[in-house]
Design a protein that fits this description.
By secondary structure, the protein is α/β, with parallel strands linked by helices. It has a single domain, classed as Rossmann fold (3-Layer(aba) Sandwich), CATH 3.40.50.720. The protein is built from 13 helices and seven strands. Strands 3-2-1-4-5-6-7 form a seven-stranded parallel sheet, sandwiched between helices.
Length: about 350
């Protein structure tokens, strides 16, 4: 059965969907763009902080740089769905380090009907706020479901009342499912699509109602490497993540005229409770008596050219920061694969 959310993260592994990425042989054109884009992140991370810093930074002066700031998101407000833990929390911390005030919106209910592993708890959400505020910015938290557009509107309105604007929306909340295609119940299928796809649409609807009058905004979608390929075990989840990319590109077309830029990050396997839980691990490694995240990562690593088997949440957060900052102020409708080369053979 499902693990308790508070315990699940470190003792159970994640999904093979992401892990199997590296094993899939598909030739393609995307690798050039992907390698370039990832290289750009690695090499221009300092330049996100400004030319002066990029030129001046030495190993001896990291603290001075920190103090000097170059906090390019200072004065901005970032709204992050699913921000109580995992990639959402790491993203909140990364954007906070860049100076943004943070709004964490999370269902924080421990369990969700038809989701086969624990989601975040209220205590996770409270702890996330403490961690974000420790970085010297302000943080609001809201317990709410991304399936509820009006609740997100209210949270965003309160954020605007408090901080003055809504500049960045990170469409991150998502849930997974795993199993044989013919075994999924109607409720399980609907839940994945209502959260991952309709939820993304509703977060976007709410966000643009504030960003359009401002004439600016960044919306960053967290899809998946499984939104770039098929996977028989994660078929429902993978198709929801493909749909998310289709929506993000459509939103880029719809809102470019308002200077609202919409881009997507597509991570491979990430070390979070989303992947590291009993249900997902047992589906990915049905033969293993005690499946672990490390086993899944090892499987994944065997297909990686680097070789790396999984990401830490901060690896994804840095890509979100890239799309939130001035380095990408002429970029919209793009997808950035952050997937340790596992998509280098993909044509998506
Ligand atoms: N972990 C991975 O291997 C991985 C890989 C690729 C993509 N992703 C994607 O990254 C995103 C974040 O994943 P994560 O690994 O941090 O997962 P996670 O389960 O650790 O975090 C997801 C957060 O979303 C919240 N949430 C779930 N349903 C919600 C709802 N209906 N309304 C509001 N909040 C809700 C949860 O409480 C949790 O805090 C997801 O969209 C996921 O699909 C994850």
């Amino acid at each position: 059965m499902h693990k308790d959310a508070d315990q699940s993260h470190k003792n159970v592994p994640p999904t093979r969907d992401e892990a199997s990425l590296g094993a899939l042989p598909v030739p393609g054109r995307r690798q050039v763009l992907t390698a370039t884009a990832l290289g750009a992140i690695a090499m221009t991370a300092p330049s996100l902080l400004g030319k002066r810093r990029a030129a001046a930074q030495t190993a001896e002066e990291p603290e001075r740089d920190q103090e000097l700031g170059d906090r390019e998101l200072t004065g901005k407000t970032a709204f992050i769905t699913g921000g109580a833990r995992g990639i959402g929390l790491a993203t909140a911390e990364e954007l906070a380090k860049a100076g943004a005030n943070i709004v964490l919106y999370d269902v924080a209910s421990r369990t969700l009907p038809h989701v086969p592993y624990p989601v975040a708890t209220e205590s996770d959400l409270e702890q996330a706020k403490v961690q974000v505020e420790a970085l010297g910015v302000r943080c609001l938290t809201f317990k709410g479901d991304v399936r509820d557009r009006e609740a997100q509107m209210r949270a965003m309105q309160e954020a605007v009342n408090t901080f003055g604007s809504l500049d960045i929306a990170v469409v991150n909340a998502g849930v997974s499912q795993a199993g044989a295609i013919e075994e999924f119940s109607s409720e399980e299928i609907s839940t994945v699509f209502e959260i991952n796809v309709a939820g993304a649409v509703k977060t976007t609807q709410a966000a643009v109602s504030f960003m359009k009058p401002q004439g600016s905004g960044r919306i960053i979608f967290i899809s998946s490497a499984l939104g770039r390929m098929g996977n028989e075990l994660f078929s429902i989840y993978a198709s929801s993540k493909w749909a998310m990319i289709g929506f993000a590109k459509s939103a880029a077309l719809a809102y470019g005229q308002f200077n609202i830029l919409c881009n997507t990050v597509a991570p491979g396997l990430v070390d979070t409770p989303f992947a590291d839980n009993d249900f997902i691990l047992s589906r990915m490694l049905p033969e293993a008596p005690n499946p672990t995240f490390e086993m899944v990562s090892e499987m994944s690593r065997s297909g990686s050219p680097i070789p790396v088997g999984h990401l830490d949440p901060i690896d994804v957060a840095k890509a979100v920061l890239f799309f939130a900052g001035s380095a990408t102020d002429k970029v919209t409708g793009e997808v950035l694969d952050v997937s340790y080369g596992s998509l280098a053979r993909s044509i998506a």
